[in-house]
């Protein structure tokens, strides 16, 4: 969510650590929808960089330049910036295509949400915690969970709120989503046995 500080004339985004965006940086933000999209594009680029997400790498782009941005990542960013899902999906894809083209790589725009880019992967097809975290839009927590001993999908059934907090996660929405998705993996694994 972007908030306006009326006393200082600046924009802040609580989900990004201590960033301030002055109105002078985005002078036309009120005047045109394109400027608003540019602001969202900038915020998304900064968020991707802060979380170490490279939209040019697998699974976000394949070697043919097709899209694979997980829907749950789009959903999380939509919630973070309080923007419509379709707008965030479109902007992320624009960023992905722009980055690929800048590197002179093939880039095929998706033209919509990720379910148009790639069919969802069944939970039993994940080979690692890292793959699973990418699929749920939270790849930035891979190192924390691995360091806390969650090095295989079978260990997810033991994941608790206390363990997640001890591992270093702090954002409430992320903790709830992570635990909810872990329960789905555990239930899916139990159903397979």
Task: Describe this structure in a few short sentences.
By secondary structure, the protein is mainly alpha-helical.
Distance between the termini: 42 Å
Major beta-sheet overview: 3 strands, antiparallel
Radius of gyration: 18 Å
Number of domains: 2
- In terms of per-residue confidence, which ranges show pLDDT below 50 for 5 or more consecutive residues? 4-32, 114-124
| H-E string | EEEHHHHHHH
Strand content: under 5%
Query: What's the pLDDT, averaged over the residues?
Result: 78
- Continuous helix count: 7
The multimeric state of the shown protein is single chain
Tell me the total number of β-strands. 3
Going by helix content, strand content and strand pairing, the class is mainly alpha
Secondary structure: helix percent: 40-55%
Strand order of the biggest β-sheet: 1-2-3
- Assign an overall shape: globular
Domain SAM: 124-188
Organism: Hemibagrus guttatus
Protein name: SAM domain-containing protein
Pfam families: SAM_2, SASH1_Homeodomain
Could you describe the 3D structure shown?
This is SAM domain-containing protein. It comes from Hemibagrus guttatus. Residues 124-188 form the SAM domain. This protein is mostly helical and 193 residues long. It has 2 domains: 3-116, no CATH class; 123-192, DNA polymerase, domain 1, CATH 1.10.150.50. The chain is 46% helix and 5% strand. The protein is built from 7 helices and 3 strands. It has helices at residues 33-50, 71-81, 85-102, 129-135, 142-147, 161-167, 172-192, and strands spanning 3-5, 10-12, 20-22. Strands 1-2-3 form a 3-stranded antiparallel sheet, with no helix packed on it. The longest helix has 21 residues, at 172-192.
């Amino acid at each position: 969510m972007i908030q306006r500080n009326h006393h200082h004339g600046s924009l802040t985004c609580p989900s990004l650590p201590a960033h301030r965006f002055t109105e002078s940086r985005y002078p036309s933000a009120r005047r045109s929808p394109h400027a608003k999209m540019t602001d969202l594009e900038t915020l998304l680029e900064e968020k991707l960089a802060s979380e170490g997400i490279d939209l040019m790498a697998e699974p976000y782009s394949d070697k043919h330049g097709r899209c694979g941005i997980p829907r749950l990542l789009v959903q999380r960013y939509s919630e973070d910036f309080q923007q419509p899902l379709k707008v965030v999906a479109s902007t992320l894809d624009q960023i992905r295509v722009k980055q690929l083209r800048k590197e002179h790589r093939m880039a095929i725009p998706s033209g919509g949400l990720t379910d148009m880019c790639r069919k969802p992967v069944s939970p039993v097809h994940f080979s690692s915690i890292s793959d699973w975290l990418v699929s749920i839009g939270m790849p930035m927590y891979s190192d924390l969970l691995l360091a806390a001993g969650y090095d295989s999908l079978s260990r997810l059934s033991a994941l608790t709120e206390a363990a997640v907090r001890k591992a270093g996660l702090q954002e409430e929405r992320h903790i709830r989503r992570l635990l909810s998705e872990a329960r789905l993996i555990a239930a899916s694994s139990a159903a397979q046995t």
